[in-house]
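SAMPLE LOG
Freezer: B-3
Tube label: C17
Construct: single chain, 339 aa
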Amino acid sequence: MSNARLLNWAALASIILLAASGLHAATITELRPTQVLQLEGQVLLDRVPVVSSVALDPTGRLLATAGDDHLVRIWDIRTAQPVHQLIRHSDWVRAAVFSPDGQILATAGDDGRILLWSVTSAAPYAAVPEQVLSIHTLAFSPDNTLLAAAGTDSVIRIYDGRGGGFVRTLDGPGPDSRALVFSPSSDQLAAGARNGQIRVWDARSGRLLHELTGHQRRVNALAYSPDGKRLASAGDERNVCIWDTATGKLENTLPARPGKIFCLAFCGPNRLAAGTSDNLIRLWDLSSGGEQYHLIGHTGSVTGLAWDSRAEVLVSGSFDTTVRVWQLNPGGRQITSAQ
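STRUCTURE (predicted):
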């Protein structure tokens, strides 16, 4: 019997076994990156630095990467060449985020400092005066007016999006918040903490809107859908919760997969990417609740995702010291998986 016929029989047997077990088979397309950016070691470390955060400017041209060597790098993603190397932090840089108008880059990390940079300069133009504990995450409101920060303590701090002036504090969902996101209309702010709790506020007034209690373990990632009607959350439990943002009710739960989830990104209205500790990026079709793509190639935990809606390109950063660029189109190798 030929090898091709043997493979066909093996595939058929696999489907029969899945049916007998009550599961159903789904076809998942495996994709490999179209571009790989490799970080180089610097004098601050005797090894190549990990990537803890990635961010794209609104044009999709500039890429910011941050890591444990205390540096922030700005790249021209079209040429894969560095533009600036930002050297002012004194500890691990956990977060880097561009303002929605593309004029400002905000960075923060374990030194408790928030620095604001012009994208055309290698020196910060402002530093948030408050010295706080480690900062794990930053988020700009889409209307450019607010910058939110969260970290080791239980407080969410809100600053002016331009100059960094203090606006207010919010009582967070718990200590050690690593997930923070504004809704696309800038009217909501959501934060998740180590205890699995999520809080959602009216971003303009600071009034608490919802307390979401679908997780039992750390929430590492939050993402609003492009229309703002859904909020996705995930973390150490390895599943994904989908919430109705108007009511705060749980809409759906995507089944757990191997690996803790460190980052989420909506790639269009019904497609959600999840970066995990098993070195994989999974793309879920929220219409069907099934996995659509596996993005393979990273050899370390995937810690950051950024989506360019114009080019339909996903950018990922990893503890494997690389940044990878993915063109989300058909044509990869297809596999059969139980759903």
